[in-house]
Design brief:
2 domains, alpha+beta, 10 helices, 4 strands, 76% helix, Bacterial polysaccharide co-polymerase-like
Length: 394
Amino acid sequence: MDITEFLTYWQVIRKRLWLIALLFIATMAVILVTGLTSPPVYRATVKLQVVGSEPEQVSLFGNVRTTTTTDEIATVQNEFVSVLKNGLVAWRTIAELNLSASALDVLNRISIVREGAAIYVTAQADTPQGAESLVTTHVDKAIQYYREYRALPARVAREFLTAQLQEAGDRLSQAKDALLKFKLQNNLDSLERELNAYQDLIRALEAQRDAEAVNEQKALAAAQAYQAEAQKAQAELDKLSETAASRAYYQETIRRFLQLAADQEAAAAGHRAARSELDQQVAQKESELLALIGLRERYDQLNRDVALAEQDYNFLLAKENEARLKEAAALQVGYIQITEPARTPDAPAQSNLPRLAAVGGVTSLMVGVILAFIIEFIEGLGGAVRRRGRTVVR
């Protein structure tokens, strides 16, 4: 820009200096009157901290994907700031404080600043108590709304798990009833114990049978021995004459050995009968054991049904309890905690009048200069048109 252009611009500004000054004075007057007549403004601030917490999702079939602490803090901050700016939360604040204002008016009086994991919420009002109650109530309503929002996944999961748990409980009851009915029909408690008991009983009966067989053989051998002794005595008796004095002795000996042999034969017959009875008992118990073995497949299936139903029930019960705890934690603990509650301000906030005056003065001067050039341009354009018209007339 050369000196000629500068002088031209200065002449335009000097020519319209009255306009620039008038606009500047008017602007400053409006700012000063507004600033001096407006009531004092009080500000109250609440400091909140983002706290770490478990994910609110309930994992049924795998691990829930987790994010880093930094990402979680940023997510919580963004979500909570959105809640603070939510119109529904503002209306809840208005209803709580019985304010005669709109949601937009309340939100315009709320300012939010984030520093690290902390969030500063400031509210301004005409009175100290109004500023303190406004920021405290709005933050409380926002925390309540946000906790309900974050608890929603856990609540939905809990409701689903409660319904599934009821169905699993019904299936478990049906499986247990079927198993109990099977046990009553077959008169058993534990199939394994019954099988073991039958096997032990069969082994005991077989041992008794074998003992009876041994005793039978012993009795038969004793009877044969007594008969042999009786035959020996008979042979000695045959050697004696009819008048020998010892004949009576041998006759008594023969009778005694024969009696003993008969007794042993009778005992052998008793052992034989007992062995036959034991054979029948062993056969009967083996038949009953085979019948029990035939029940194993059905018994095992019923037990598997009960075990699977119990496993499903216990799994769903644990998950429902997890969902219930996470819902309670989200509603009662949440992700946001107030670390510094608001206090009633002692004095009004510092006035913005100097800053507004400086900004308004500079802006009015710039607008005045621009307006001066626009008017100069319009006047120059009009003069050129008039000169061209006189030329055409001549």
